[in-house]
Amino acid sequence: MLNELLKEISHRYMAIDDLLRDVSQVIVFGAGGSGKHAIRVLQELGVTVLRVCDNDREKQGDTVNEILIITPEQLQEYPDTMVLVASDWGGDIGRQLQQLGMKYYYFGFAFDFKRWKSHYVTEQILGAAEQIEAAYALLSDEPSRATYRALLKYRLTLDPAFFLHADFPQYYHPLVLPEGGDTILDGGAWSGDTALEFVRELDRNCTIYSFEPEPGNYQKLLATIKDEKLASVVVPCHVGMWHETTTLSFNTSVENSMQYHVSVNGEQKIEVTSIDDFVRARGLKVDVIKMDIEGAEVNALQGAAETLVRDQPKLMISAYHEPDDMWQVPLMINRINPNYRCYLAHHRQSPLDYVLYAKCAS
């Protein structure tokens, strides 16, 4: 698969370290918050933002940071200028630029957020070819395999036109759904947003254990439980998911509290537990495990091995936080319990929120 894919994208290949090399000026597509952030980063790098482009007619002709906002059609006046997409609508914009005949357009996420740059190191991706192929072979349907190929193409080209957006909401894969009566472990509860969605979808016929280790986010979770009167169905757990029960360092020096993550250089100490320890201590039978835990997913799956074999819960696991999660998550699930059938879906028009769904064969 990978060799054929590389041949297919050879005309669009772009190594991230080469993206802004010898480039003196660019156009940013997106005049919103992401665009403003991209402008600031580019200017810090010494790159001139020549124009900003946006689809919003009310913004066109105005300025952002004293830079003129032009229409997409006006981009054709700059055929050899690099366009960097900075928008939550990256997939649609990529295809729009493709139709306009723009030759040099890339999704700016890779350089815009330093944490994600390691996802685009071509040598590391190609060096993992055997694991990538093995994970691809575990995917159980063509939509999942197409999504996997599309994400690899994007990571090797930075072309957002490759994104394939799922036609169902996140955590509601048609074959891997929460159901009435389920006991759900919600890893990465944040403010309780996902728990609230599950409660509403299941008409309160469920029990949710919401794991949130960061004190500020945990207070938000408690507030949601109180405000939405969820105490009878949502159990707040001031602890994170890991492969063992211990204390870890947590990095909170990021712009968004949703992106706090485990780090040896973290400023904060948090308590974590393995799912097996947690389930064993409470005598639970688990029906669903959801994880969006900022790169701790593979570790947490290791700590759930006993549960995955005994209870065979449905799995909804984020597979994008670490550079190799896209293949390591399905490979870990398969090592623990090869009876699982795996599916992949991408829920945003950016490199975020792709989820590995898994369910044991009947």
Labels describing this entry:
single chain; 362 residues; alpha/beta; Rossmann fold; seven-stranded mixed sheet; six-stranded mixed sheet; 13 helices; 17 strands; globular
Short recap of the structure:
This protein is 33% helix and 22% strand. The protein is built from 13 helices and 17 strands.
Strand content: 15-25%
Morphology call:
globular
Q: What structural class results from the helix and strand content?
A: alpha/beta
For CATH, the homologous superfamily of the largest domain is named as Vaccinia Virus protein VP39
Could you characterize what this model shows?
It is a single chain. The protein is an alpha/beta fold. The strands form three sheets. Strands 9-8-7-14-15-17-16 form a seven-stranded mixed β-sheet, with helices on both faces. A six-stranded mixed β-sheet has the order 3-4-2-1-5-6, sandwiched between helices. The longest helix is centred in the middle third of the chain and has 16 residues, at 142-157. It has two domains: 2-162, Rossmann fold, CATH 3.40.50.20; 182-360, Rossmann fold, CATH 3.40.50. The mean pLDDT is 92. The protein is built from 13 helices and 17 strands. The chain is 33% helix and 22% strand. Helix 6 packs across helix 13 (325-336).
